[in-house]
Amino acid sequence: MSGRRPKPQSRRPSSSAGSGKQRGGGSSLAGLPVAPGQRAVCEIVGLTHEGEGVGRIEGYTLFVCGALPGERVHVEVMSVGKSFGRARMTELLSPSADRVAAPCPIYEACGGCQLQHLDYAAQLKWKRQLVVDNLARIGKLPVAGESSADEKMEGHPAVVVHPTVGMSEPWRYRNKAQVPIGSMEGGLVGGFYEHGSHNIVEMDACLIQQDANDETVRAVKDAARALGISAYNRVTGRGLLRHVVVRHAEVTGQRMVVLVTNGRDIPHTQELVGLIRESVPGVTSICQNINTSATPVVFGDETMVLCGEEVIYDEIGDIRFAISPRSFFQVNPEQTKRLYSAAVDYAGLTGEETVIDAYCGIGTISLFLARHAGRVYGVEIVPEAIEDARRNALLNGIHNVEFAVGAAEVVMPQWQKDGISPDVIVVDPPRKGCDAALIATMLELRPPRIVYVSCNPSTLARDLRLLEDGGYRTVEVQPVDMFPHTGHVECVARIQRTEV
Question: Where's the active site on this chain (predicted)?
């Protein structure tokens, strides 16, 4: 889900480069084959989950941003540790056949994408392999086709990991932009963070954003500059405009602007709203969110409408959703339909089943499931999300759903006491995976089937191991490329109870 991206490391040299010392001022670790500042030739043997090249020098691991497996590169070592170090590529000696020229002009500086230099077909293969490696290494699960020995691991039938579902046109897919605002040489700038820092790279066009988002962000920045609205300075805590968040509803064409401000009062508010609406006629909602905290969190607790409605509407498949400023809504509509279709397929619904959707959010998966199930119960700890979920159910005339606020591991046992026995449990947790208490609760409820939608293969594998130890078997996993040209991959896993 956009905004879940782990922060990649900087491609730029640190100030300690060439000093011969460890970052932090200590002496280089004794016995290592490299030291900070050293230049060497490095063989790249793999990629990390963040898309960095994994290099080897005399058996020692170096992470090299921008390098690809199979390449020989000349590097400068930036830092070293006991287990691994980091280096920057200074020269590409032998390129991979999968290397392509990144089309984005600010790719080398911007931290938004990590894999534009890797051919898209190769990206899809790598993302599947990332899932396979995590299942085997963390989940201790045999994967079909990986090795005959693994497939016989403890008599466990091999898990089928399907090829990654990609996009025919893997550009301009994001329907939401979340742009930090800052100042440079006295002027307001907005773009994305530089690799490994909070320096903002000025950006007017992003190749993974929908054109409508670029147009709207440019209009907001131009209007703010014209009216002299100050940019927030995260070091001093002064300045007003912190972030510009824009959404574009692909089906309805509606657009939303959220101005995240370091304080309540915006100078020339009506003029600002007027300039934005004049430049972007499709804007139907302009909101202000107030965030005065000294944290990197984008949104504060208070949001108010400056112009138009508090929501915009979009559709996924035949289901319509009301999207508020802080709603979680998948950012790649085309791939979301494929992801949710896989989840519905793995649920094995015939129209009679009782389904529990944990981490239900605004009801996106719940409403898809409700079209095929007898009854769906959704639970989510965020009250505003449940309000949106109930509104979305009414909006679509779907009446076989019920939503509750609370922690799933608390609400689900209460449902069980009320006589609700799930045939299927669907989970779609954040990157940290399922709460341990929720895993325990699912094992207590013992539904015949569990569907796990994941945005993080490592925590997916960890949780699958716990479910397997509790009497379940992972049957198959479908990776879906929700975020082309980044290191992220989403998956849907089909899990069955071993004893019925």
Answer: 455
Selection from 41, 43, 44, 20 nearest residue 32 by Cα: 20
> What SS3 class is residue 214?
helix
H-state helical runs in 396-426: 408-417
Tell me the one-letter amino acid at 463.
D
> CB under 8 Å to 292, separation ≥6 — which residues?
262, 263, 300
- 455 is an active site residue: yes
**3 state SS for 345-392:** HHHCCCCCCEEEEECCCCCHHHHHHHCCCCEEEEEECCHHHHHHHHHH
Distances (CA, A) of 18 to 26, 89, 108, 448: 14, 14, 22, 59
Q: What is the CATH number of domain 1-99?
A: 2.40.50.140
Angle between helices 211-226 and 269-279 (to 10 degrees): 140
Domain parsing of the chain, residue ranges: 1-99, 176-316, 330-497
pTM: 0.89
What residue ranges of the chain have pLDDT lower than 70? 1-28, 147-155, 186, 500
Q: What top-level class would CATH report for the domain 176-316? A: mainly beta
Which pLDDT belongs to residue 296? 85
Tell me yes or no: is domain 330-497 CATH 3.40.50.150: yes
Closest CA to 244 of 145, 331, 176, 147: 176
Alpha carbon distance 500, 272 (integer Å): 62
Taking the CB of residue 169, how many other CB atoms lie within 10 A of it? Answer: 9
Same fold, 1-99 and 176-316: yes
Q: Which helix (H) or strand (E) holds 342?
A: helix 333-347
Scanning the structure block, which residue is given the tokens 């574009």? 248
**Binding site members for S-adenosyl-L-methionine:** 330, 359, 380, 428
pLDDT in the model for residue 50: 86
Rounded distance between C-alpha atoms, residue 239 and residue 182, angstroms: 9
For position 8, what pLDDT does the model report?
A: 35
Q: From the candidates 104, 206, 455, 491, which is the catalytic residue?
A: 455
Binding site as annotated, residues: 330, 359, 380, 428
